[in-house]
Automatic annotation (TrEMBL), chain A:
<feature type="transmembrane region" description="Helical">
    <location>
        <begin position="191"/>
        <end position="210"/>
    </location>
</feature>
<dbReference type="GO" id="GO:0005886">
    <property type="term" value="C:plasma membrane"/>
</dbReference>
<protein>
    <submittedName>
        <fullName>Branched-chain amino acid transport system permease protein</fullName>
    </submittedName>
</protein>
<keyword id="KW-0472">Membrane</keyword>
<feature type="transmembrane region" description="Helical">
    <location>
        <begin position="94"/>
        <end position="115"/>
    </location>
</feature>
<feature type="transmembrane region" description="Helical">
    <location>
        <begin position="34"/>
        <end position="54"/>
    </location>
</feature>
<keyword id="KW-0812">Transmembrane</keyword>
Automatic annotation (TrEMBL), chain B:
<dbReference type="InterPro" id="IPR043428">
    <property type="entry name" value="LivM-like"/>
</dbReference>
<dbReference type="GO" id="GO:0005886">
    <property type="term" value="C:plasma membrane"/>
</dbReference>
<feature type="transmembrane region" description="Helical">
    <location>
        <begin position="302"/>
        <end position="331"/>
    </location>
</feature>
<feature type="compositionally biased region" description="Low complexity">
    <location>
        <begin position="7"/>
        <end position="31"/>
    </location>
</feature>
<keyword id="KW-0472">Membrane</keyword>
<keyword id="KW-1133">Transmembrane helix</keyword>
<feature type="transmembrane region" description="Helical">
    <location>
        <begin position="156"/>
        <end position="175"/>
    </location>
</feature>
Automatic annotation (TrEMBL), chain C:
<dbReference type="InterPro" id="IPR028081">
    <property type="entry name" value="Leu-bd"/>
</dbReference>
<protein>
    <submittedName>
        <fullName>ABC-type branched-chain amino acid transport system, substrate-binding protein</fullName>
    </submittedName>
</protein>
<feature type="region of interest" description="Disordered">
    <location>
        <begin position="23"/>
        <end position="57"/>
    </location>
</feature>
<dbReference type="Pfam" id="PF13458">
    <property type="entry name" value="Peripla_BP_6"/>
</dbReference>
<dbReference type="InterPro" id="IPR028082">
    <property type="entry name" value="Peripla_BP_I"/>
</dbReference>
<feature type="signal peptide">
    <location>
        <begin position="1"/>
        <end position="22"/>
    </location>
</feature>
<feature type="region of interest" description="Disordered">
    <location>
        <begin position="435"/>
        <end position="454"/>
    </location>
</feature>
């Protein structure tokens, strides 16, 4: 029972981390119908920028702000320079562009920061809550509460943005019907850029949260997250911020049970099984907004 | 994607032919093996046979005129190209994406390793038999995956196949008694026959050291030629046209009685068979089947080869695979020898340049290498025709 | 092709002559009069004997993960090797030959290893491979190197795979194998902590398995209360450490890589779990782990003392032993080499191995073939002394490396203090014995001086 509780709580924390990553993917999918494989190395890059700020004597919070801002800039730049020309073209071309970016950015991070791992101290204590002597819940620490909380707040903020603001409405319009949006006076191009910028900022947040969660970071520290974050986003339906978070939590829980009761090496297989089962029932993911496609 | 549609992009023809091809598709395996002639226009088959013969001649020339090390690299190109060829059929023709073909290669490689794993004193089973078994095993796995994949689209399929790429190699760790975990199964390379040693000596005077690697390279290239011959015929056949219809004209195809799901599964099965053969070839080239060889990056590389080369053509898949094998080491050499970098720095920089090259290619040659060249030729021809008509 | 093959023919011929000379294994013009850059012969006597061995150079190659997930730490090894070879070259090289050190990145992917090692052998024409890193990676080239008769010295992994002279006559291990290490650890715990409830934390490959096999030879099954494994790449070790805690283990022994030492320490701290810790040699890397953990102690304690009280094993000197003459030598050589970064344990590892390589080249004689090099290691290797605490097990029947280690505990300053004399043992049911020799100080010149065999 104790193991189950700690695995469940651990699953929630890991799940929020996947969810953070999935949120960034969902934002980009919503705005440009592209799966951004470069998300992982973009987030690694912004996290290393944050580390540079901390090394220079800045606080974690200053570093976080810098990471988010550099995410915004990086996202906007990438959309304008390399994504714009392939938008609306064959979807595989966009996939290859983001794969190319993934490889290139990771290489640049390694060249600048070196390949060695380094410590990343999270903002809050990671010491677990001691239920009783000899039984501590590792996942119930101040830092894990911050991680889960930050993801939930981000999700709510994104929902609010899309539901209740003119800007959010314009972004949604641009994503769903460019021509109509244009007729209505929305500057579609600008909205797409904003979508990427926002996504990269969320990705930067994810990077910071993940770095705090894993404690040690290197240029490749986001690699495993790319796969599980992507799976979480797909589980959720790719279109919905709530879906991303639910998908992330579901995946986090399932994988933690597998890790606890079976074996580490089956994590990938477990993700596959969950994904296939969910998609066979709902081919558009749990929170798909479009009608399920014909089989 | 666009250029594959042009030559046969006649949806009417595809739907007309659909009822017959659908039945032909049901007995596709036997059709592929024996009754191909009745399905294919004779002229196509002859043309492909001719290409096969020329390809074989070029391959021998290439293998005999290059250094042994290049021979081995050509072996690497061969197995990547076989898998990429299968993926071309799946992605270029049937319109499905797969980020998990590396895992299917693992099935082929492990089957090969297990079958060749006999005592040194014993005679291993014949290579042809082993390869057939590898293809059969992978086809089976491919059919399983294909059934699930047929119901999924775009990013959902991408996500599921990516999970496959991560998940399947994990089984080698979990069942480490059979698959020997992380350190993998070593594979004794096939012994070269006496006639090969003699022939090669007469051809290029090569003797002694490394001849076994040469023999393996020959096997790899032979497998490439044979599999491309099959794939080319398949893509040009009515089955190929049906797949295009399934991709481009879902509704029309369905109205014409084509079962979209069955055809998608079939495409997955065929491409899985290619991946299985590729894995078997990889196994004898690398002489090891280990999880570390089948990371998701392999699957992503295959997709890269297919798109960079020019989606939908086997030539493109071959070209893209060659690029994968020859470009990174060339970039590393460049960094080390010309820019005087440390090995680690040169290696890391090669990734940066490689990644940027992918981006740039997609921006300036969106149809891939083969597609772009074709387009340029077409344009020039059109321009020439225009000036001629202007003059006349 | 033809240029290449002609050269290959001459090598084969040379190799045949060498083997037909049976045990003496030396060319007739090889001098018996000591190495050290030229005793018993002059540069004029140098001859090219085949690939990688020209009149004035000898080329040694290797493969390491320089990029990707396995790169941290390991990518430093070849820079250590480079520093030592540079030092030897600056002092005249070996038999007036400059050592050329060519290494390639394989990203820890066996497919890449297979390609780059063939490139090293066929294109760069190395004389020998030295220190190829990793079990799955090197496993992919064993057959190739042995078929092509390329000396495959000193694989950088403690797997027992490399000690198989019958099937792999050209391959040699170097570091103490994981099973012997497990035995020494197991015996120490059984004797000194008979009441400890031991939990094992293992990497789920040959590293963890061989180590566990050794440990279980000395620890009863009921003294080992829990076994947890991890798959390299999965960085969340919380569940495993929680399970060890829940099992009541008060002594945790890890066969894991350095990042996992840091991860397990952090997870245990967050769980208020304070067992006695022991990390096998691979995972202890106090400099690396200390720098990782130091950041988390928020200045309360220094990084090095994060490992205070922890046990490990040792078979070559480590950088915390600033008074050790070998470390002083390597520090001097590293500083002179002008490469970036500081002297680390991984660089000491590379330099120590390079030292053994120079011994091997000296013992092989002035104009050796690959077979001469292999014969020299088999014949003389067991007598070589160097940075390694205990002798190598090399002979014509055995290709296993360093035979033993000592048990070490880190004190509050992060310096390892020996808890046992030097212990030697072997795989299987070989006894653990005290080593009766003494570690030696490095020669004045910092370069070995082995006599040519044969």
């Amino acid at each position: 029972m104790e193991q189950f509780i700690s695995l469940t709580l651990g699953g929630v924390v890991n799940g929020s981390v996947y969810a953070a990553f999935a949120l960034a993917l969902v934002l980009i999918w919503r705005s440009t119908r592209i799966v951004n494989f470069a998300q992982g190395s973009m987030a690694a890059a912004t996290t290393f920028i944050a580390v540079a700020v901390i090394d220079a004597g800045g606080s974690y919070w200053l570093a976080l702000v810098v990471a988010l801002l550099s995410g915004l800039v990086m996202g906007a730049l990438i959309e304008r320079v390399v994504i714009r020309p392939v938008e609306g073209g064959p979807e595989l071309n966009a996939v290859i562009v983001t794969l190319g970016l993934f490889v290139a950015i990771q290489g640049i991070v390694a060249l600048v920061a070196g390949v060695d791992e380094r410590a990343f101290v999270p903002p809050f204590s990671t010491v677990g809550y001691e239920v009783r002597e000899g039984f501590t819940l590792l996942s119930l620490s101040r830092n894990s509460i911050w991680t889960v909380g930050a993801v939930l707040v981000t999700m709510l903020a994104l929902i609010a943005l899309f539901r209740f603001t003119r800007l959010g409405l314009a972004m949604r319009a641009s994503a769903f019907g460019q021509e109509v949006a244009r007729l209505l006076g929305v500057r579609v191009g600008r909205m797409l850029t904003l979508g990427w910028a926002l996504a990269a900022a969320v990705g930067a947040l994810a990077g910071m949260l993940i770095a705090g969660d894993v404690s040690f970071i290197g240029p490749t520290f986001m690699d495993t997250l790319i796969v599980f974050g992507f799976v979480a986003a797909v589980l959720g339906g790719l279109d919905s911020p709530i879906g991303a978070v639910v998908g992330g939590l579901l995946l986090g829980l399932a994988l933690n049970y597998v890790r606890g009761y079976l074996d580490d090496s089956l994590l990938g297989m477990a993700a596959l099984v969950i994904l296939v089962v969910v998609l066979l029932v709902r081919p558009g993911g749990l929170f798909s907004t479009t009608a399920a496609r014909r089989a | 994607m666009s250029e594959t549609q042009t030559p046969t992009g006649d949806p009417g023809a595809a739907s007309d032919a659909a009822p017959t091809t659908a039945t032909a598709g049901a007995n596709a395996p036997s059709a592929g093996a024996g009754g191909r002639r009745s399905l294919l226009p004779r002229i196509t088959l002859l043309r492909h046979l001719l290409v096969l013969v020329v390809g074989a001649a070029v391959a021998v020339l290439l293998l005999e005129s290059t250094e042994l090390n290049t021979n081995i690299k050509l072996g690497n190109v061969a197995y990547l190209a076989i898998a990429a060829g299968g993926l071309t059929l799946l992605t270029g023709l049937s319109g499905q994406i797969s980020l998990g073909h590396g895992a299917l290669m693992a099935v082929g490689a492990y089957t090969t390793a297990l079958m060749l794993d006999v005592e040194r004193s014993e005679e291993p089973p014949s290579l042809a038999l082993v390869f057939l078994a590898a293809v059969a095993a992978t086809t089976l796995v491919g059919a399983l995956v294909g059934v699930a994949a047929a119901r999924l689209h775009g990013p959902y399929l991408a996500g599921a196949t990516l999970a496959l790429a991560v998940g399947l190699p994990g089984l080698a760790l979990y069942f480490s008694d059979t698959f020997n975990g992380e350190q993998g199964l070593t594979i004794r390379p096939p012994e070269r026959p006496e006639w090969f040693t003699e022939t090669v000596e007469q051809l290029s005077g090569a003797t002694g050291r490394g001849l076994n690697d040469k023999w393996v390279a020959y096997i790899a290239v032979a497998c490439l030629l044979i599999s491309y011959f099959f794939l080319a015929n398949l893509m040009r056949s009515r089955m190929g046209r049906t797949w295009r219809a399934v991709r481009d004209q879902e509704v029309a195809a369905e109205l014409a009685g084509i079962s979209l799901g069955a055809w998608r599964v079939l495409a997955f099965v065929v491409s899985a068979a290619a991946a299985g053969l590729a894995g078997a070839v990889l196994a004898i080239v690398v002489q090891l089947a280990a999880p570390g060889s089948f990371l998701p990056v392999l699957s992503l590389s295959l997709l890269t080869a297919v798109v960079i080369g020019g989606l939908g053509t086997l030539t493109g898949a071959l070209l893209g695979s060659a690029l994968l094998v020859f470009l990174p080491p060339w970039l590393i050499d460049l960094g080390r020898d010309v820019f005087d970098m440390e090995e680690a720095q040169a290696s890391q920089s090669s990734f940066v340049v490689y990644g940027l090259l992918l981006v740039v290619t997609m921006l300036f040659a969106p149809a891939g290498l083969v597609g772009t060249i074709r387009l340029a030729l077409l344009r020039r021809r059109a321009a020439r025709a225009l000036t001629r008509s202007g003059r006349g | 092709m033809t240029r290449n093959s002609r050269r290959l023919v001459s090598v084969l011929a040379a190799a045949t002559i060498a083997t037909s000379m049976a045990a003496c294994g030396g060319d007739d013009d090889s001098d018996g009069g000591g190495g050290g850059g030229g005793g018993g012969g002059t540069a004029e006597d140098n001859e090219a004997t085949g690939p990688g061995m020209t009149e004035d150079t000898v080329t040694i190659g290797s493969h390491y993960p320089l990029t990707g997930r396995a790169a941290p730490g390991y990518s430093e090894i070849p820079t250590g090797v480079q520093a030592y070879f540079d030092y030897v070259n600056a002092n005249g090289g070996v038999y007036d030959r400059q050592i050329e050190w060519v290494y390639r990145d394989d990203g820890y992917n066996p497919t890449n290893t297979s390609t780059v090692v063939r490139e090293l052998v066929l294109e760069e024409e190395v004389f020998a491979i030295m220190g190829g890193l990793g079990t799955p990676t090197h496993n992919a080239v064993l057959d190739f190197l042995n078929t092509e008769e390329v000396p495959d010295l000193f694989v950088s992994s403690g797997s027992s795979l490399w000690d198989d002279p019958e099937n792999l006559p050209y391959t040699f291990g170097w570091q103490t194998d994981y099973e012997s290490e497990g035995k020494i650890i197991g015996q120490y715990i059984a004797e000194e902590f008979p009441d400890a409830k031991v939990g094992l934390f293992l990497q789920d490959d040959d590293f963890g398995e061989d180590g566990e096999r050794g440990v279980r030879q000395y620890l009863d099954d009921d003294q080992i209360v829990e076994v947890q494994t991890y798959t390299s790449g999965n960085i969340d070790v919380g569940p495993q450490i929680a399970a060890l805690q829940a099992s009541g283990a008060d002594f945790v022994l890890g066969f894991n890589t350095p990042p996992y030492t840091a991860l397990t320490q952090l997870a245990a701290r967050d769980l208020n779990y304070t067992p006695q810790w022991w990390y096998s040699n691979v995972g202890s890397a106090p400099d690396l782990v200390g720098s990782l953990l130091g950041a988390f102690s928020q200045g309360a304690v220094s990084g090095a003392s994060a490992l205070a009280g922890i046990y490990t094993t040792s078979y070559i000197p480590t950088v915390d032993q600033v008074d050790d003459p070998w470390i002083q030598l390597f520090q001097r050589i590293w500083d002179e080499s002008g490469q970036e970064g500081v002297l680390t344990n991984t660089r000491v590892y590379g330099m120590s191995m390079a030292y053994t390589m120079v011994q091997a080249l000296q013992a092989a004689g002035r104009n050796p073939t690959g077979d001469d090099l292999v014969a020299a290691v088999e014949e003389a290797g067991a007598d070589w002394q160097g940075p390694a605490f205990t002798p190598f097990r090399y002979s014509s029947d055995r290709h296993a490396g360093i035979s033993g280690m000592s048990v070490v505990q880190f004190n509050a300053e992060g310096v390892g203090e020996p808890k046992t004399p030097l212990l030697v043992t072997d795989t299987g049911d070989a006894e653990i014995e005290e080593y009766d020799g003494e570690p030696i100080a490095p020669p004045e010149s910092g370069i070995p001086d082995e006599e040519a065999v044969g």
